[in-house]
Amino acid sequence: MSIIEVFHQHLHQKQRFSQNTIMSYIRDVKKYIEFLERIGIKIENTSQATVITYIIDMQKNGKSNSTIARAIVSLKVFYEFLKEQSIVDIGKIEVDPPKLERTLPQILTKDEVEKLLSCPKEDDIKGIRDKAMLEVLYATGIRVSELISLNLSDINLDHGYIICRNKKRDRVIPVGSYAIEAVEKYLKYSRPYLARNKEEEALFLNFNGSRMTRQGFWKIVKFYATAAGINKEITPHVLRHSFATHLIENGADVRAVQQMLGHADISTTQRYLQIANVKLKEVYQRAHPRA
């Protein structure tokens, strides 16, 4: 078994790590090991200097500060593991991550959201499903990983809410009437034809009858963004950003938005307040006669 496979098993045993975090650590460490092979150094012979050399190499190759910062975190976890396994102990990695520029997240305008959500055809199985997924994502602001993890028991259409289950804490999030209508239609006309196994608990299914994947839904978003003629780099997370920004623009309390998004730190949520303020300033500049 390779060191990467052992490290992978080790991470799975750590309850604080999500699947996405684990895969991120594995990708970063694989790249580091490829670097070591390229310069001819074995893992057991590495040192603080090796890590610093790798960071410098990343900088020379034009890697972004965020990529480098993430790699440093991954290597710290990796070397903790190597120490536990008595493979090598280089001590605490004394490399400070580069300062990250706080860029405002990409969002869609309300008109762009309307165009995107109106794209799926509601006269076939796929269109009905896609419409329901997009509506729920924008209505609740949940992450794509949380969307595809929803089970039938996690959505209450009569009372208009979903339960977003998390290792740390479950969140109860209200769902609007448009999303409720879209899901009701999906459950009546689409899901019964997709579900090959009547015991399947997943809410949203692919054409194999199994739970929708991140990659599958990412392709769905890209397809409809192109069909809607939206000339922006759109990912499922852009709908989450749009959800939060549009709520705050319409007067929602920042702490309420924080709770719905599941942010541990309110400063993360306050980025959306910045976007709203920027847009207000733009409106002022355009409209005020003495701006």
UniProtKB/TrEMBL annotation:
Residue ranges of every copy of the Core-binding (CB) domain listed in the record: 1-83
CDD domains linked: INT_XerDC_C (cd00798)
Location relative to the cell: Cytoplasm
InterPro entries: CB (IPR044068), DNA_brk_join_enz (IPR011010), Integrase-like_cat_sf (IPR013762), Integrase_catalytic (IPR002104), Integrase_recombinase_N (IPR010998), Integrase_SAM-like_N (IPR004107), Recomb_XerD (IPR011932), Tyrosine_recombinase_XerC/XerD (IPR023009)
Family named by the database record: Belongs to the 'phage' integrase family. XerD subfamily. Belongs to the 'phage' integrase family. XerC subfamily.
Subunit structure, as described in the record: Forms a cyclic heterotetrameric complex composed of two molecules of XerC and two molecules of XerD.
Family annotation (HAMAP family): Recomb_XerC_XerD
Annotated protein name in UniProt: Tyrosine recombinase XerC
